[in-house]
TrEMBL record:
It comes from Ectopseudomonas alcaliphila. Repressor involved in the biosynthesis of the osmoprotectant glycine betaine. It represses transcription of the choline transporter BetT and the genes of BetAB involved in the synthesis of glycine betaine. GO terms for biological process: glycine betaine biosynthetic process from choline; negative regulation of DNA-templated transcription. One of its GO terms (molecular function) is DNA-binding transcription factor activity. HAMAP family: HTH_type_BetI (MF_00768). InterPro entries: BetI_C, DNA-bd_HTH_TetR-type_CS, Homeodomain-like_sf, HTH-type_TetR-like_transc_reg, HTH_TetR, Tet_transcr_reg_TetR-rel_C_sf, Tscrpt_rep_BetI. This is HTH-type transcriptional regulator BetI.
Length: 196
C-alpha cells in the first residue's frame, strides 16, 4: 500500500523524469522502462499513476501548460498599469518564460504537438491551450480595437508567438528570448497603432 501523501510526489517525480527522457532520447525512445529508470521507480508505478505512456505525456503537458499559465499570470498580476499593451506584453513574456523555452520543455512540446494529431485526448488538450491563448489575446486587443480587428490581431500574435517559439525550438541553439520578445512587441505595437 502506498504511503499517504506520496501520490503528488511520485507524479511530480515521473513528470520530471519524462521531461528528462524526452530531452535525452526523444519521445519515441523514451520508453516506460527508460522513464522509470530515470525516476528510480518500477515500471508498474507509471502504470499505477498514469495507465500508460500516453497518460504520462498528457500529465507532463498539463504540467507544462500550468507552468505557462503561472508564468503569464504572475506577470499580469505584477503589472503597474492596466492597459491592453501591458497585458499583451505580459502574455508574450509568459509564453517565452524559461519554463517554456528550456531544452526539455521545448522537445516535449514538439513531441506533444506531433502526438496530438493522432490521439484525441492530446488533441483536446492542444485545442484548449490554443483557445486559451487566442481568447486572452483577443480580450485585450478588443479593449483597444473593434472586434474584427481585435480577432485578426489576436490570431496574428498567437501565430507569431507559436512561430517564433517553433523556429527557436528547431534552431538547435539556445532560444533567443530577447529577440523573440522584440519581434512580438513590434507586431503588437503595429496592431495597437491602428486604434489611433
Amino acid at each position: 500500500m502506498p504511503k499517504v501523501g506520496m501520490q503528488p510526489i511520485r507524479r511530480s517525480q515521473l513528470i520530471a523524469a519524462t521531461l528528462e527522457a524526452v530531452d535525452q532520447v526523444g519521445m519515441a525512445d523514451a520508453s516506460i522502462a527508460y522513464i522509470a529508470r530515470l525516476a528510480g521507480v518500477s515500471n508498474g508505478i507509471i502504470s499505477h499513476y498514469f495507465n500508460d505512456k500516453n497518460g504520462l505525456l498528457e500529465a507532463t503537458m498539463r504540467h507544462l501548460m500550468q507552468a505557462l499559465s503561472d508564468a503569464v499570470g504572475a506577470r499580469r498580476r505584477a503589472l503597474r498599469e492596466d492597459s491592453p499593451r501591458a497585458h499583451l506584453k505580459a502574455m508574450i513574456d509568459g509564453n517565452f518564460d524559461d519554463s517554456q523555452v528550456s531544452g526539455p520543455a521545448m522537445k516535449t512540446w514538439l513531441a506533444f504537438w506531433a502526438s496530438s494529431m493522432h490521439q484525441p485526448a492530446l488533441r483536446r488538450l492542444q485545442r484548449v491551450n490554443d483557445h486559451r491563448l487566442y481568447s486572452n489575446l483577443c480580450g485585450q486587443f478588443h479593449r483597444a480595437l473593434p472586434r474584427d480587428q481585435a480577432r485578426f490581431a489576436a490570431r496574428g500574435l498567437a501565430s507569431l508567438i507559436d512561430g517564433l517559439w517553433l523556429r527557436g525550438a528547431l534552431s538547435g541553439e539556445a532560444f533567443d528570448t530577447e529577440q523573440a520578445r522584440r519581434i512580438a512587441y513590434d507586431y503588437l505595437d503595429l496592431q495597437l497603432a491602428k486604434a489611433s
